[in-house]
Amino acid sequence: MLLLVVLAPGLPLATAEDSGPGSPSGGDGYWPLDGNSGTDARHYDIRVAYDFADRILAGRTKIRMRATKDLSSFSLDLVLPVSSVSVDGRRARFRRPHPHEVRVVPSRAIAAGDLFTVEVRYRGRPERFAYAGQRNWLADRHEVVTMNEPHMAPWWYPSNDHPSDKATFDIRVNVPRAKEVVSNGVRVSRRVSGNRATTHWRMTDPMTTYLAFFAAGDFRIETGRTRSGIRYYNAVSDRLPASVRSRAVRILRRTSGITEWLQRQLGDYPFSTTGGLVTSLPVGFALENQTRPTYGSWIYPGVVVHEVAHQWFGDSVSVRRWRDIWLNEGFATYAEVFYAAGHGGPSVNTWLQGVYDATCRHPGSVFWRLDLDDPGASRVFHSAVYDRGAMVLAALRNRIGGTDLLRLLRTWVRDHRDGNATVAQFETLAETVSGEQLDGFFDAWLRSGAPPAGTSANGLGRGCP
């Protein structure tokens, strides 16, 4: 195919003199250094090799990007030491104005709208580096898993590290041939060379940077298809004790049925594969890595519902800013409650009223004082974001009816599929779908700083006992 580029008359090419630098800030108020302005990532081609003995990761990542302004320089987020950078095959200068930032100066200025490819080579021990008070590298002599939120990418690949800039991914991981490698999407190939092997995974749907992951270790693999034909790929660490491993395998197998149940409620599953991975490494959280959530050995059915629900809420529809995190965690927690209600647990309303009764007696607690519309960087994972966040949807169900709530959620994930959204957009859509004026409801539940009054307008059957 011959690609013709037509330049509009009278619009000169950008030069170093009339171009400006892209900002090292993505503009998020919680973590200003997350992401970078001036660039829009389109595709990541990540190639890393990991040595378990010395725990060194060596990488070569190419990023296909589009300039959103005339650029004389731009920034990438990475904590590992960099050896070289090139832009469109030409060697580029770079510097480290901050341990989290790589400032790239291409040999030629880049015009707004132009597509370009930046290649970064880097090498280091990820466990030695910290950012935003976090040391996120999870590994021992046998296993490694790159799972964390809100930050994980800078420990293993350069990126525009913010949920608002989604891209597609090719991920190739080179490790000893005895190890299995698991990542996002579909496994494309595995090539053995000597005593090492390179496994290639591909994610063709847009993905935010913190959701990209790889795991390498001794894993027991199960593959197949769900009833509707969605491919699944499950992996459980063989390093777990036999009884723990057997239990983890049984619970992880429930992913297929949970995926099918959730798509009956929410609409089509947004990706081509599902599954999960259980690590033997000591981790106290699970994470909704796109298409393949990661879990600790303590996995239980409810957390599988939560992480699979995130494939719609958080992965396909991602937050535009970190302050919108309620759209991820509150919605996934509500899915847990809704699933339990349909599988022998208490009804959604019984759960809602029970949590309300137990917490409203402490109106000054952080649980009620926290602003779900803007919880603050230190509290993005506070229990209120999860549990009170789920209460909002449970109460909304009482206010507008279960049929309208499901229609609202289905419309939400359909309209914002593969994109980003805000709390304000959800509030507007809720009014559109229900035909009701809901300002008072959302103010009471999200922003009032106190337990909502126990009224039908707030979706409650009674006040605080």
UniProtKB/TrEMBL annotation:
<dbReference type="InterPro" id="IPR014782">
    <property type="entry name" value="Peptidase_M1_dom"/>
</dbReference>
<dbReference type="InterPro" id="IPR027268">
    <property type="entry name" value="Peptidase_M4/M1_CTD_sf"/>
</dbReference>
<feature type="domain" description="Aminopeptidase N-like N-terminal">
    <location>
        <begin position="42"/>
        <end position="211"/>
    </location>
</feature>
<keyword id="KW-0862">Zinc</keyword>
<feature type="region of interest" description="Disordered">
    <location>
        <begin position="15"/>
        <end position="34"/>
    </location>
</feature>
<keyword id="KW-0378">Hydrolase</keyword>
<protein>
    <recommendedName>
        <fullName>Aminopeptidase N</fullName>
        <ecNumber>3.4.11.2</ecNumber>
    </recommendedName>
</protein>
<dbReference type="InterPro" id="IPR042097">
    <property type="entry name" value="Aminopeptidase_N-like_N_sf"/>
</dbReference>
<dbReference type="GO" id="GO:0004177">
    <property type="term" value="F:aminopeptidase activity"/>
</dbReference>
<dbReference type="Pfam" id="PF17900">
    <property type="entry name" value="Peptidase_M1_N"/>
</dbReference>
<keyword id="KW-0645">Protease</keyword>
<keyword id="KW-0031">Aminopeptidase</keyword>
<keyword id="KW-0479">Metal-binding</keyword>
<comment type="similarity">
    <text>Belongs to the peptidase M1 family.</text>
</comment>
<dbReference type="InterPro" id="IPR001930">
    <property type="entry name" value="Peptidase_M1"/>
</dbReference>
<dbReference type="InterPro" id="IPR050344">
    <property type="entry name" value="Peptidase_M1_aminopeptidases"/>
</dbReference>
<dbReference type="InterPro" id="IPR045357">
    <property type="entry name" value="Aminopeptidase_N-like_N"/>
</dbReference>
<feature type="domain" description="Peptidase M1 membrane alanine aminopeptidase">
    <location>
        <begin position="301"/>
        <end position="445"/>
    </location>
</feature>
<keyword id="KW-0482">Metalloprotease</keyword>
<dbReference type="Pfam" id="PF01433">
    <property type="entry name" value="Peptidase_M1"/>
</dbReference>
